[in-house]
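Lab notes, practical 5.
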Amino acid sequence: MLQPLLPKLLEQRIVLASGSPRRQEILKRIGLKFEVVPSKFEENLKKSSFAGPHEYATATARGKALEVADRLYNQVKKPDLIIGADTVVSLGSDIIEKPADEDDAFRILKRLNAKKHEVVTGVVLVVPSLTDTGTEKYDTVEFHESTEVCFGDLTDEMLKAYVATGEPMDKAGGYGIQAIGSSLVQGIHGDYFNVEGFPVYHFCKKLVQVYRERQQSSAPRTDQHS
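Output from the prediction step:
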């Protein structure tokens, strides 16, 4: 989908505001060239103050992206695009993030066992402002993606053995669908890559839309007189 836009994107400074190796790999696969500038935003927003997981994940992604934007927009060569993202797992009304330790990982997996849950990723794109007022340095575009995941019916022995691999420790929900954790998943409904940590299709679609709109806004207007 990005192929017509890639020549322009390859000339621009694109920044991923995340240290996630999974997001980096996904973006590399679609041909993007980018810098990795992990955000220093403290991910400690109060979950109960948000209406649901979509709002929470998007707010965290916004915090990550804007923290990096505030740092980099003071540079001479400002970024043309900053990508912020945050992925959470939701089970009912509960938002589940990365496990604190192995015991926590087992508890999380035990809760997900033989049930359906949602994987939600909030994404925020930061682009230079098109206004000439100078009051706003950048504009933001926000969206989210949700994928339903169904865990198989697994024994405690299986779950503990998976935790012992160490794979759950840096992943929302305590599992990685792209690796050993794939053996826990009975099926999904929605974007697979969203479960990995980044909704590729929605991102590409939104990016094309953003660049088309910006191209139209910056195009010179011709006044017609009767």
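Observations recorded by the TA: The mean pLDDT is 92. The first strand starts at residue 14 and ends at 16.
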